[in-house]
TrEMBL record:
MF annotations from Gene Ontology: L-amino acid transmembrane transporter activity
Intracellular or extracellular location(s): Membrane
Species, as recorded: Clostridium fermenticellae
Signal peptide: none
Annotated transmembrane regions: 9-29, 41-67, 88-111, 131-151, 163-187, 199-221, 233-257, 277-301, 333-352, 372-389, 401-420, 426-444
Protein name per UniProt: APC family permease
GO CC terms: membrane
Amino acid sequence: METKLERKYGLITATAMVIGIVIGSGVFFKAEKVLNATGGNLTLGILAWIIGGIIMISCAYTFAVMATRYQYVNGVVDYAQATMGKKYAYYVGWFMALIYYPTMTSVLAWVSARYTCVLLGFSITGGECMTIAGVYLIGSFAINSLSPILAGKFQVSTTIIKLIPLALMAVIGTIVGISNGMIGYNFTTVVKQVDTSNALFTAVVATAFAYEGWIIATSINAELKDAKKNLPLALVSGTFMIMIIYILYYVGLAGAVTNKVMMAGGESGAKLAFQNIFSAAGGTILFVFVVISCIGTLNGLMLGCSRGIYSLAARNLGPRPDIFKQIDKVTNMPTNSSIFGLLLCALWLLYFYGANLTKPWFGFFSFDSSELPIVTIYAMYIPIFIMMMKKETDLGVFKRFVAPVISIAGCVFMIIAACFSHRMEVVAFLIVFVVAALIGRIFYNENSSN
């Protein structure tokens, strides 16, 4: 009898995964980028966070509607199959297993190592950083492979821990800012005049990448207790909480330093804000929380990465499904799929270093693997949302049309933004994407069945 994944995670773990994956190091430092994009216009900056949040919540809500109707082994692949058919679902799953999951996971391993190096006083460009990144990558793989229950508890714990500095700054920073007039000053003072439309476009792009990652929570669909109820609740409540947290934290920062100082601070802007509110020790404490935040995000990404190729193998698709759909009887983990995911993460970590952290090794094919895969997955959502509107005739107007249309608009926005931001890198990435798809075609079997 074939061993199957057990339903071992509850609503709290699923919600923590949504929040924990999205809230990583970006939330601590994206505030400066948004301020610089808007010329220090705090109102415009908050509007950017709201728009970015609406894009995220609308996509999550649309998938939440589908989550109440379909479930198998990997949420987004299930939804692709139910709406677009088996072949499209296969290519979505193939892309996520081969590119999306491992690129995101490898970058987070490097980011975790980078802030660890800042904390310890090591060079962020030397061998120490890449060595620590490798250790973090293997460590997250080990905890997920050896004890998925422990990995789930670790996800909940790190999510709670990473919310502490955000909550402190949101509450205390706002109180201090109101009492000393700093918030009022920042809301009424614009550092420099900018083209409002272009500024908002650029700022929303920055927030959009800070909001990414929630879709990975659907990878534990088959392991959720009462998935048709808990996954929608986790997606909607988790993404809504993230938007509120970001906005409150953004306002709290405005109570700690002036917009001009924040804009000039670079990566030290948030650290300076914490020092002003919580003394010099606050800056060091912030980086401790940043490291914990990154590691928690890495853990959530590895949760998805380890199940990437399994989601195809469970459908008897992809290379050697008989091997990759095997579940360990003791740990109840797709061990072979996990090992394959770790290998891909290592290769993409090497690519990220060669393409972005040193003199480019790959020439024309050097692109930012931390951003373009995200835009690609948004592009893949569009046909799913369109077919959902066509097929789900028994849904109400809002669920069937309004939410998907808003989601499609957000996806199109992301695609346009990527083209403006990355230009020829988009072409290089598309070539790699096509090559990966052609390799995936070799392993696609029309006659395979679930």
